[in-house]
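Now for one specimen:
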Amino acid sequence: MNTEHFLEVRGLKKYFDAGRPRLFSREARFVHAVDDVSFSLRHSEVIALVGESGCGKSTLSLLLMGLEEPTEGSIFFEGRDITHLKESERKELRRKIQMVFQDPYESLNPTQTIEEIINEPLLVHGIAKDKRERDERVMKAMEDAGLKPAEVYLSRFPHELSGGQRQRVVIAAALVLEPEILLADEPVSMLDVSIRAEIINLLAELRITRQIAVIFITHDLGSVGFFADRVAVMYLGRIVEIGTMLEVLEKPKHPYTKALISVIPVPNPRLRHERIILQGETPNPIDVPKGCRFHPRCPVAIAICKDSDPPSVTLSKTHSAACLLLVK
């Protein structure tokens, strides 16, 4: 194992039982939510995980957090296999891997003050048992998350804050444990456009000041163009293309990636290009197409695509300091 990769995922799969098609049928059906995903992550690296809704991005993040048990595959963190841990071991791990959920309106307890929300992780993990030390960590986390001055927000409740401020509270509650990895599951999709840039800039700043690695999950490739070191494009449970952000934006190889990039808004009319509008819906993950799983919607599909499943496209073979995602 490469010691530079402090998080490694190998052949990860997650299938959900979908029941039987008929009452007395012996056939078992499964939802292929995550299907053979492999990658590695370095310290303070930012990876953007991009794809349509339902492609498996959020399920992958839940597997990394230990909130779902994988069907197959392995997850290594700092050289240790964390795929199947006891609850006590999992609790210790979650101090180092924290998650920012999509909806700040649902992920905050409306009956708690902001101080109580951010202080709770410290109490749960038994960190900073001295109240003065806890207060210092809470204040620092709030300041780092952009809630300045922190004293103004301590006694407020979530309903007294704007959407952007709520998301900052969620980020502060993750930062208070001083994690090494932040899993951001579409953290700006529920926010106004004017606020999205502020949250993305905040995560970019935290990556530098706190040396936190970030896996940024999004369906909008354009929103993380300046922020991510690398991008992984997911389709129907698999990573279909991987590379540095610049490589993927300028020289995409997979037809699905090209379609995603074609619909990114471009301010300059002279630089706009023809949009690729995919026909039909994403195939049912219970009944995954044979061959290339993208061929039913692919505008350049040929006969062999129905029988042959191509490997993932890796754009860069020589990894730079911020180019360390490995895909099988």
Remarks:
- The first helix runs from residue 57 to 65.
- The first strand starts at residue 5 and ends at 17.
